[in-house]
Amino acid sequence: MPRNEPTQVTDGWDGGRSPGRRKAVRYAVPVAVAGVAAATIGLVPAFAGSGSPDLPKISAQDLIAKVAKSDVQQLSGTVRVSTDLGLPSLPGGAGGFGGAQGGGKGGDGASAAPQNKLMELASGAHTLRVAADGPEKQRVSIVDKAAEYSLVHNGNEVWAYDSGSNTAVHSTAPDAGRHGKQHRAPKDLPGGLKDATPQDLAKQALKAAGDTTSVTVDGTAKVAGRDAYQLLIKPKQAASTVGSIRVAVDAANGVPLKFTLTPKSGGAAAIDVGYTNVDFAKPAASTFAFTPPKGAKVVDGDKARAKTPREHGKDLPSHKDVKGLKKDMGGLNVLGKGWTSIATIKGDGSGLPSGKDQGAGGDAGKFLDSIGEKVHGSFGSGRVFSTRLVNALITDHGTVYVGAVDKQALIDAANAAK
User: Which residues contact 359 (CB under 8 A, 6 or more apart)?
Assistant: First the structure.
């Protein structure tokens, strides 16, 4: 059979457009970047093996269609996640994230909360064991040297268990009571468990491909022992911080097996997520059965979720407050298109503290000065917070510009909006 060559280019393929509006978190730049990482990690499990099998030639359009048509809903395997976003160091190290959110308080279920575990995936290397049997049964376990964290969805039940604190949180899957049967994975499940199988999440990545993107089929590979085509996605826009995205697609069933994102600055992949082994047979029913170990602290997640707003309601902004805040900030707006889209939130005139400030704000300002670069333009001045992928400019007037673009693109956007 003729070997597949990297000559199939689709410059104008219209696979849809990325959403016109995206959520942004004002000032919380390191946390926002970590959230972007976690979301991206969920796109497609992958890990490259060795060898380049001979496969029939296929065009980029046909390979994308193969992914779109794939309907594999049963699988199990091991996934290796490696993330190097170049996030700025926070006081107390990486543990500062978890500790700030209730680390060590195993009894209240904080250590078993999915959002806390997602933060851990934003840096370093991790091993996951995954399994899925349709939209009603999924399981993922994050395994490290000292402990294991498992999240299990089985019909109308969701269990989260942290072996480190020996804490389990039990919840009822959303909509189970209203419809009698759970048809979609709960919205708070991370990565490939959220309302999708791995290939469905890959389709979301391909929606960004349009006239701002070059898509080619760049040879073949062996991934987790399976033959795969390599789809290469490259931004055409020079200001993008993304160098390329490489997705290995199973030649037999169209399931994405590899996702590697390399920044334009070069070096190691910023995100490399992948199967080290995968099996598309139906997992055993026992895979999705969970019973808390003896002595485990069991937390009723439904009660905790219902109780929290009542206890802390005074601290939560009202609907009126939120509307007023959006009005004061001018709302969220997106500038540009494609890979160089920049989300902006107009400030209220009060920017970040400076290291020169006296009093309590001085220490915060010194810390921000240490991780952010001071910049100037016709817009005035501000700080740029940088990672290997996502950069953010926060002006001294409080306006935020954030995107997967270089520093100059953010300054140009601020100057143009002046």
Answer: none
Mean pLDDT of 239-266: 93
Give tens-digit pLDDT for 350-375. Answer: 666 555 554 444 565 666 666 789 99
Per-residue tokens: 246: 């490489």
pLDDT in tens, 44-92: 333 344 568 999 999 998 998 898 888 899 999 999 989 888 876 544 4
Over residues 264-277, mean pLDDT: 91
Q: At what angle do helices 198-206 and 60-69 cross, to 10 degrees?
A: 140
d(Cα 326, Cα 347) in Å, to the nearest integer? 10
- The set of residues, in sequence order, having a beta carbon less than 8 Å from that of 25 and lying 6+ positions away, is 31, 32, 35
What does the block give as tokens for 326? Answer: 């959006």
Distance CA 20, CA 31 (A): 22
**Lookup result for tokens 């370093």:** 124
Q: Per residue in 292-302, is it b (16+ CB within 10 Å) or e — as a string?
A: eeeebbebebe
Long-range contacts of 263-270 (CB under 8 A, 24+ apart): 263/388, 263/389, 264/240, 265/241, 265/388, 267/388, 268/84, 269/82, 269/84, 270/83, 270/84, 270/85, 270/86, 270/388, 270/389
Show the tokens assigned to 71.
Answer: 């309907």
Token pair for 341:
């889209």
| Whole-model pTM over 0.85 | no
**50 touches 107 (CB < 8 A):** no
Query: What is the pLDDT confidence band of residue 311, given thresholds at 50, 70 and 90?
Result: very low
Which secondary structure element, helix H or strand E, spans residue 355, and what is its range?
none
Q: Which two tokens stand for residue 390?
A: 């996502």
What angle (nearest 5°) sits at the alpha carbon of residue 29, between those of residues 23 and 33? 70
CA distance linking residue 168 with residue 297, whole number of Å:
6
Domains of the chain and any CATH numbers: 9-312 (2.50.20.10), 317-416 (no CATH)
Backbone angles phi, psi at 323, to 5 degrees: -60, -40
**CB count in 10 Å sphere of residue 350:** 9
Cα atoms in the 13 Å half-sphere on the side-chain side of 273: 26
Query: Distance between CA 292 and CA 296 in Å, rounded?
Result: 6
**C-beta separation of 34 from 87 below 8 A:** yes
d(CA 373, CA 351): 15
Question: Residue 85, Cβ neighbours under 10 Å: how many?
Answer: 21
| CB burial of residue 204 (10 Å; 0-12, 13-18, 19+) | middle
The tokens describing 241, both together, are 């911080």
